[in-house]
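W.,

You were right to be curious about this one. When I first looked at the sequence I had no strong expectations either way, so I just let the prediction run and decided to look at it fresh. Below is the sequence, 564 residues in total, followed by the output.
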Amino acid sequence: MDFCQDESCGKCTPCRVGTKRMLQIVENICKGKGKIEDIALLESLAATIKDTALCGLGQTAPNPVLSTIRYFIDEYKAHIIDKKCPAGVCADLFESPCQNACPVEMEVPAYIALVRAGRIDDAYRILKQTNPFPSVCGRVCGHPCQGKCRRGQLDESLAIKNIKRFITDYATPPKVEKLPVTRSEKIAVVGAGPAGMTAALEMKKRGYAVTVFEALPEAGGMLRWGIPEYRLPREILAREIKDIVDTGVELKTNVKIGKDMTFADLEKAYDAIYIGMGAQKSMPLGLANEEAGDVMGAVEFLRTLSLGKSVTVGRSVAVIGGGNSAIDAARAAIRLGAASVKILYRRERKDMPALEAEIKAAEEEGVAIDYLVAPVEIQVKEGKVKGLKLTRMRLGAFDSSGRRRPVAIEGSEFELAVDTLIPAIGQQAELNLIAAPGIGMTKNTITVNRDFSTSHPKVWAGGDVVTGPAMVIDAIAAGQKAAAAMDLALRTAKGEKPWKAVEEKIDIPFEVDEDTVEQPQAKIPELAPEERRRDFKEVELGFDLETAMMEARRCIRCDVKLEQ
């Protein structure tokens, strides 16, 4: 729009004035000063300019705006309603790209500056202000913050995730105090995963009595039952869940809603309900013989292992899929003694949703990955799987995921001997247990409004049950946002003012090196691959103090705004 407005000759009013006005509106949106009515105004102005401008410049000038409104309306809404730029390019809307990329907007430059200054305890307090699971995120987060780190434009981005882990390993945890109940409303949370426990904590902070219902013996959701100990030790997760429970949140385990307690009972007993149950059921392959012996979904396989039950695998294990669950299942099978573990993926390596570091770790431990192959038949003998019939794939046109759709190559079928088959093509929630009128659902998810409310007046939902499988930090963000919306709705119904948080003020030092020297990212030490295969000990060993402070010094403090 800036180019089109600048190129306008000024002869006709629609182009001369209209493009200038459209540019002003778009600039205001990028500065966080937009209004939701601006979208309709842009469309109206665009239509008028296209119909009345004298030349091709004016007649086509509005097209880019119309195209972006049509295909990227969520970007407009994010800038206008949330005052957030998802792409991290509108500098007026964020302090730093790393903080903007974090779904909970953790103050990354602040805690890194505190590590640099040696104030590790203060850094931990900064972490806890925005994230109730910093130790967990320091180990298993997908760290979108690192992908936006401006230091990466010079050499390599900061090891933000590993610095976060160092803080939680070395600092003295902030003291947890029981929070008083100051509200009359009672809150129920279904699911004790990161989304549910975060929502429970946020509602507890606001003065509500909160009860969390969990179907399994312990809280943690997919963090507890879906991630093996070599990535996330149980005591680390248990410590952060205890911090939440110690605030006064009531946790009831071994209570399955829809079985041990009906959803109607929840509606009668509680004033508001948050559904945060995760996607804890594997999606089927859709092939015959999938119920045969030695065929088990990745989620069920990992959960059985985490429950401490006996799990045996054959000598030859095949895992179907390319996500983190597939990688975890394959690496777990190696540790259980499988002689051969192979991941079969229907696309190319660059299309795998699993973290690249996890893929490399699996390969180092002996997991083989075959790309552009897909199963077409499960072969069974005497009720147990004995092999797979597979077909080679080629990549066709792009699909809705932005990746090229795999297409079977005719006549390329081949067979693979398999003793154990682990499908890991996706996860879904057990929505059949939530039988309540007024809760909109698709086949695998709950439908929510922008504020995480459902069409049921008492029910909000968030996390994997809404989005499908996502990162732990996304689930935490969903719990925080849903709790804020739930609290606002309850207060508004009583004519009360919105709740305001009172946060501890921590002085953040500002120190940068005068000369920035190119230096690679510090690498986290790990157990040797041959050691990893023996047991489920944690693979990553963490930074020591010297390494963490050295890495923190690489931060260029792009959050600091210099006065003109």
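Here's what jumped out at me. The longest helix spans residues 472-493. And, maybe more interesting for your project: The first strand starts at residue 186 and ends at 190.

Coffee later to discuss?

I.
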